[in-house]
Each structure stands twice: as C-alpha cells, then as structure tokens.
Amino acid sequence: MATDVEVPALGESITEGTLAQWLKKPGEAVAADEPIASLETDKVSVEVPSPIAGVLTEQLVQEGDTVAVGAAIARIDEQGSAAAATPAQAAAASTTNPAGAGETPALREDAEPTPAPSPDGPPQDAGITTLSPAVRRAVLEHHVDPTRIRGTGKDGRLTKDDVIAAAEAQKAAPAPTSLVTPAKAGAQSKKEDLGSRVRGNDERNEERVKMSRLRQTIARRLKDAQNTAALLTTFNDVDMTAVIDARARYKDLFEKKHGIRLGFMGFFVKAVALAAKDVPSVNASLEGEEIVYHDYLDVSVAVSAPKGLVVPVVRDADAMSFAEIEKAIAGYGKKAKEGTLTADDMAGGTFTISNGGVFGSLLSTPIINPPQSAVLGMHRIEERPVAKDGQVVIRPMMYLALSYDHRLIDGREAVTFLVRVKEAIEDPTRLLIDL
To answer: Under CATH, which number does the domain 2-172 receive?
Structure first.
C-alpha cells in the first residue's frame, strides 16, 4: 500500500516552498519520521519526514519545483522492500554519490574538479544537490569539491566530518600548478552555463546562480522598507569601559553559575528595554492609520546564517535576566549556523538589534525590519582619543546608529532614545536601579 508524503505546515503565512534537495532516492528504504527531502521557504529550510516506514517508490516533483503546503511530493510503499535502483536512477545517483560506502574521507584524485562553492550558494553543477543541509553548509564554509570526497556515511553519503577532513587534507596538500586545462575549462563553462571570455592566456568566467527564496525575500523586504518608510538614521558613540570592566570582573562567576558566557548583547538588550520605557514610540508600529504601542519588548536579533541574514526573536526581553538573554541569543546563533531555525523562531518582533561589529563594521545605517519602526546598529569597539575632564585619554569606543521611521518617530524622540541607551551602557548601574 502506497502512502503519499505531503508538504507539512511551514509556519504562519507561509503557503509554499521550493524543493531544494532529495535526501532519498527511489528504491531506498526509509524509516518513519526519517527526512526524505529538504524544502526552502521564504524564511527557513525545512526537512520533510516520511510518515511511515517503507520504501520510497516515486518522487512526484523535481528539485527546484515550487510546492504548496499539503501537496504530495513522493510515495512510500510500506509493503515494499529496498531494491536496486533502475539504470536511470543509478545513472542519476552516480553524479551525486560518487564514493562507495565505508571508504575513508579523502579527496578523490580521479574526479574532475568543479568550481569552488561561493559563500552565497553552490554553483549550478557542483554536485551537492542531494547533500543534507549540514553537509551542504560545511561544503560552502570550507570551499571543497564534494564530488572529490569519499563518503563514509550510510550508502556512501558524505558526512560533515568527511567534508572537514577533506578540507584539512586540502590545506595540507601542495597547491597544483593548474587545476583546469583550457579545453576542460571551455567544456565545463558550457556545461554549467557560465559566460567565459578568453583574452590571451587569461580566462575570465561568469557564474550565474539562482537566488534562494530566502535571499529573494530579504531583497524584497528591504526594498519595501525603503519605498514605504520615511527612513532616517541618528548616530552617537558610547564609551564601553564600564561594560568591559564588568565583563572582566564577573565573566568567570557568570559562566560558572549560568553555563553561558556574559556577552555585550545582554547589556544592550537591557539598555534598549530601559530606553523604550521613556520613548515608547521606538517600540511601536504603524498599522494603516493607527499606531500600535506594545507593553512588551520582543527583540529581533540579526544573526548571520549560511544563506543570508535572519532575525530570530527574543520574546519578552524586557522581563528577562542577563543570563536568559544570553542563553536565548546563543541558542538562536547555534540554530542559525545549523540551519534549524523555524518560522516561529522569527515571527513577530517589535525592535531589532544588529551587530555589524562582529564583522568589523565601523559605522553603518541599518534598515528597519517592517512592521517595526526602529533598529539599533552596533559596531566594532576600537580605542580612540577622547576628552575626559579636560584631558585627552584613550577609551574603547563604539559608534551606535538608530535607523527609524520618521512617520512615527520624531527626531527628538530618536535622539533621546539613543542617548538613554548610551547612558545605560556607560553606567550599567542604571540597568539595576531602573534609572
């Protein structure tokens, strides 16, 4: 008896997704709740589990197809048994599973090299379309060619450890004098639909990669924010001496008691919560001709994920302790790296904090995340000469930027809010006595 595998609910307001990759091939046995495919939505990647144990008998859609929630994408025969794939299936599998089971992770010398994956996504013919999300992320992070790695997982599949081991071996190996001959480069460019221009002995390639659904959504929302909101940014700088001293003094005790490191973000979330009490419009939103004021603070924390920037939400952050805030942010950071964030993790949010400083940014003008009305941008800490009590001294300084929707927030309110954040960071005692 065959059972259809249907696209599960993908989250509030999400009605469809793109089938990013098949994790199982026709003829393969699957266990109940074992993932057989990976879907990409506007917000997250979701694995589709098998509802029963049996054999995957048919794939009803192809990779890259758009599928609606509730649509059937495959069939599982619970009475069937795993069988050898048909010649056509075997031929297709050979392009994505070149290594045999039980082999040690190593670079395959007999494989044709393919272009290194770009940080934003895989080349169109990189042979990684059937890799699991964790393995694909490892391939992109380490810039290795998956077709040249022997897999040690089930049925010869690549594992994350295989990719890491191959990356280490690649670093240790001497660089070849020439990876691609002109003849191979021309054939490869044609196969991958790359534009190629040759001038003398120099080769110039252009690679075309379709934008992921997540990247398309990010682009659309950012442009909508620019087109709709009356965006303005105000700046200030903050002396980080007091926060740095507090972290140095209590970090060991904090980690020992709570099992998490004391970071800067906890201080800034607390400072935003304090400032929002004085300037509630910064934590409000516009709905039509109405202003919606929130008596809670749900902070969207911008986190870098393999496929783009995501903003999971720390809910009721104004009522949380430092330890609870740090644990929530660390948990989201781990899930973002692993690609396991859910749509619920990113739903809502009344204010956003973006920390470009972790990437070395000195100053920026962040864009608000609609329907929110403001976003706080943190930046790198650097020692600069500043005047203190008539003396020029060196202090660890950070630039802060508050971008806001001028339709809702006046300049006076925006500046006042940012000054309150600055005062709380420069004198953290204010966070304890609600001043």
So the answer is: 2.40.50.100
Residue holding tokens 């025969």? 77
What are the tens digits of pLDDT across the range 72-95?
889 898 876 655 444 444 444 444
Domain boundaries, the chain: 2-172, 214-433
Rounded to an integer, what distance in angstroms lies between the CA atom of residue 420 and that of residue 268?
11
How do strand 231-239 and strand 382-388 relate by DSSP bridges?
unpaired
User: Which residue in the list 4, 224, 316, 410 is annotated as catalytic?
Assistant: 410
- CATH architecture of structural domain 214-433: 2-Layer Sandwich (3.30)
Relative orientation angle of helices 241-258 and 322-338, to the nearest 10 degrees: 80
Share of the chain above pLDDT 90, in %: 37
**Which residue of the set 4, 344, 406, 427 is catalytic?**
406
Whether residue 15 contacts residue 83, with contact meaning beta carbons closer than 8 Å, is answered with no
**Strands 299-301 vs 351-355: parallel, antiparallel or unpaired:** parallel
410 belongs to the catalytic site: yes
Amino acid identity of residue 97, one-letter, is N
3-state secondary structure of 11: coil
**225 three-state secondary structure:** helix
Q: Specify the 3-state DSSP secondary structure of 72.
A: strand
**Better-predicted residue by pLDDT, 179 or 228:** 228
Report how far apart the first and last C-alpha atoms of the chain are (Å, whole number): 68
Q: What is the pLDDT of residue 144?
A: 79
Instruction: Report the alpha-carbon distance of residue 36 to residue 8 in Å, rounded.
Output: 13
Residue 157 and residue 152: Cα distance in Å, rounded? 6
Active-site residue 245, yes or no? no
